[in-house]
Amino acid sequence: MHARTEAASDTASDNPNSWPDDIFDILRRFDVRQVPYVPDAGHSQLIERVLGASSMRGIPLTTEEEGVALLAGAWAGGQRGVLLMQSSGVGNCINMLSLTQIFRFPFLTLVTMRGEWGEFNPWQVPMGSSTAAVFELSGIKVLRASHPPEVREVVEAGAGQAYNACTPTAVLLSQRLIGAKVFTK
Amino acid sequence: MSKANLLDRRKVVSSLLAERKDTIVVSGLGASTYDIAAAGDHDRNLYLWGAMGGAVMIGLGLALAQPKLPVVVITGDGEMLMGMGSLATVGLQKPKNLSVVVLDNEVYGETGGQASHTAGNVDLVGVARACGIEDVRALATMDEIGAFARRMHDLESGPRFANVKVDDANLERVLSSRDGTFIVNRIRGALGHSPM
Known about the structure:
- The complex is a heterodimer.
- By secondary structure, chain A is of the alpha/beta class.
- Chain A has one domain: 3-Layer(aba) Sandwich (Rossmann fold).
- Chain A has helices at residues 19-29, 44-51, 65-76, 98-102, 125-137, 148-165, 175-178; strands spanning 32-37, 57-60, 80-81, 83-86, 108-112, 141-145, 169-173.
- Chain B is an alpha/beta fold.
- Helix content of chain B is 36%, strand content 18%.
- Chain B has a 6-stranded parallel β-sheet with strand order 2-1-3-4-8-7, sandwiched between helices.
C-alpha cells in the first residue's frame, strides 16, 4: 500500500487528520461488531483502530462482495457491521447488494473515493465516476463527505439511517478529503 | 468413483439435519435450497434464492455472531466455485462453530446440466485445505455423513469442510419461502432478536 498525502488542511478543524477517529467513535457508539474490509490507504487509520478494538472484529476479505454477504449473516445472527472499501470495489458488489433489499437489513458501507480530485491513475477513473450511480441504481442511499469537519456529522447521519431505519446507506469519503495518492515525488 | 456409487443429495441432507437441535442452516442458491426444504422447514433455516457465491460468507457472519451455536452451510459446487475466495476468508477467521458441506454433482443442474469445474480440474477439498481450513474431507458413504453430522455440533474443532460427490439427478423441487425479510427475521426471532 502506498501512503497518501496529508489530508487537506485548508479547512477549519483542530486536527484535520482525526476524522478516522471520529468514524471509529461513531461505529463504537452504534455497537458495530463486524467490520469486513478490503484495504485502502484512505481507510488505514480506521482499520488499525478496528483491529485494536476488543468489541469489533476486523475481517479482511478477498473481494468486496464477500463483505455484503457477511453483513447479511451478521444481521441474521444479531450483530451490526460496516463494510470498508474503496470505490473500485463497489462494482464487485453489485449482485450481492440485492441482499440489502431482500433481507431489508441495516447495510452501511464507508467508501474511500479514487478516480477524482487530482487522480494520477486513469484506471481508477471509470469506476470512481460511476460509484454513486451504481449505489443509487442498487437501492442504496448515498451520502458524501469532502472536508474533515463534516465527516462526523455525515457518518453519524449515515449510521443513524442505516441502523435505526434499515435504510441501506453508502458514505463516500471524497478523494479531496483523503488526499490524492502520490506516485512520484 | 462410478456414478452408481454416488450418494443421493436428499438422503445426505436429511442425515446431516436429522439431529440438528439448535443448528442454524444456510443453503446456497439452487438445488441445495430445495434439499434443505425437503428435510423439513425450520425457523433456523436461511434459504438463499439468489446471491450466488454468498452462502459461505453469510454462514461466516452468522457463525461469528453466534459462536455458541453450530452453523452449517450446505451448498452446491457451482455456488461454491463462485465464492471460492470466501474459503480463504474462513480459513483466516477460523470460526470453530462453522461447517461447510458442498453437494458436488459436478454440473449446473438448474441451468441445463452444464459441467462445472469440479467435473474437470478442481478439487474443492484441496482448495479448502490450501485456504487454511484444517478439518477437510471428502465424504463418500452415509456412515461418513452420519459421523460428520455429529461433528457439526462440536463447537471447538471447526471450521470444517466436506465435499460430497452426489448423483446429478434433477429431483422434484421442494419450495421454501422466497420472502427474504420473513426468513431472516424468523431466524432473528428464534435467536431472541427483534426484526429491526
